[in-house]
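ok so I'm stuck.
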Amino acid sequence: MLKFLLLGVEVLFDPSPKRDRKDFFDREGELERLKTLSSPIALTLGLRRTGKSSLIRIALGELGLPNSYLTLESFKRLTSRTGTSF
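replied:
not stuck anymore, here's the structure
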């Protein structure tokens, strides 16, 4: 069995974002709701490491629609170095 460390603690799952539904658990309702939205823009908000990126990536993959995926992690690092706020 593969072993992964998350914040120095051994976990039984791979903590990286998922791209396939078979690797994603207990979020079927949220996934289906996201796939049925009619808005051209959807924001997914929540605490860190709760599956937001995986939810979006899996939905986009299943829909097969053209898309842009933007992560703001780089902006966070930029603002902490420069003191600039966005």
